[in-house]
Every structure is written in structure tokens, then in C-alpha cells.
Amino acid sequence: MRDIPPVPDHGIELSGGALALDFANTVGGSHVRPTHDHLQAYADIVAFAELAGGLERSAGERLRQRAEREPTRARAVYELGIALRESIWAVFSALASGEVPRNADLDLISDAAASAAARSRLVYDRDGIGWSLPSDGDVLERPLWEIARSAADVLTSTQRDRVKQCASESCEWVFLDRSKNHSRRWCDMSDCGNRAKARRFHAKRQAAPA
Length: 210
Prior knowledge:
It is a single chain. With 210 residues, the protein is mostly helical. The chain has one domain: Jann2411-like fold, CATH 1.10.3300. Helix content is 50%, strand content 11%. It contains seven helices and six strands; from the N terminus they run H-E-E-H-H-H-H-E-E-H-E-E-H. The protein has helices spanning 19-24, 42-51, 57-69, 71-96, 103-119, 142-155, 189-207, and strands at residues 27-29, 34-37, 121-125, 128-132, 163-165, 174-176. The strands form three sheets. Strands 1-2 form a two-stranded antiparallel ribbon. It has a two-stranded antiparallel ribbon with strand order 3-4. Helix 2 runs antiparallel to helix 3, helix 4 packs across helix 5 and helix 4 (71-96) runs parallel beside helix 6 (142-155). It is globular and about 65 Å long.
């Protein structure tokens, strides 16, 4: 069982541009020495999926109830979720750096995405026909299926070429750069971007002659 970093003092931020990337960004600081972690228990994974649009609230409530009835199983799925998060981050971080992702990380994502595919059904809605997971299930792994499918969708599409990692030395968040000229450098301009601007301004003042 892993040592869980402190609870953050702020809510989850969705700046990755895809469900899987937002999931990878639920830890602050580095993934080796995180400063905080939004995912402290299974219920937090459910809450993330609801917030990020990967799970309907009614389904989330059923999952929370089942987790209360099966705490040992819920803990095991939580640990699997953390492993999936780390593999997703590792793969996209490698791609953003021009490196080759590890097969072990790709395999973990593949297994979860395959579980999602096995349970998906073709449905028709106003957007056309697409794959959808049943909305009435209470399988505890359900939130992870949507996340893994999101990761697989990005990895197998042209969006893969838009994956970047925050340029801040203290942030490892990954995101899809959808800017017009592909010039986005920060996970969030109002956060890491502004801190970088402040550091540059301070450095210039320090270097200026008296």
C-alpha cells in the first residue's frame, strides 16, 4: 500500500483537454515526490469522474454505495486506479518529451481500455452513433474504463501530436495544446504561467543596475 500525500487545499483543476490527461493531473508537484494528491480513496476517483464528465451522478452514487458494502474490493480498485494514473502520466510525459513510452505502461492502459471495449455498446444519439458504456452498471472499475478509453483515444489519434508537458520546473502536468500556433507552454496561464512571469520579472529587477 502506498504512502498517500497530503490532501490539497483546492479543488480539482481540469486543464488537460481530455479526461485521461485530467486524471493524470490529479497529483501536484512531481509524480516521484508529490506535494498533494486529490485521490485519497476510491470515492475520490468517482468524484473526479463525475466532475470531469466521465460518469453520470446517478451511476456515481451507486458506485459509492457498493464501495461502502465492499471496502476491501474498493480499496483494490483504488490502487489499480492510482497505477493507471501513473501509467497514463508516464506515457504522455514520454511522448511530450520525444521519448518512447514503456511497454508496461501501455499494457496497463490497454487492459483497462479493453475492459471498457468489452462492455461498450453502439448507441444512437444527437451526435450520431458511437460506443457507450451502460449507465446502470455498478462495477467498481467503471470509472477507470472511461479514463482508459480516453487515453487510448488520444494515443491512437492525431491529438497525440498535440500532447505537451507544463514548462514549469515544479509542475509535471500534461495537456493537449489546442492553441492556433501550437505555442502553449503552461498547464494553466493563470497558475504556472503567471508564476513564471513573476520569476522573470524579479530576475530582471535583480539584474538591473542600481
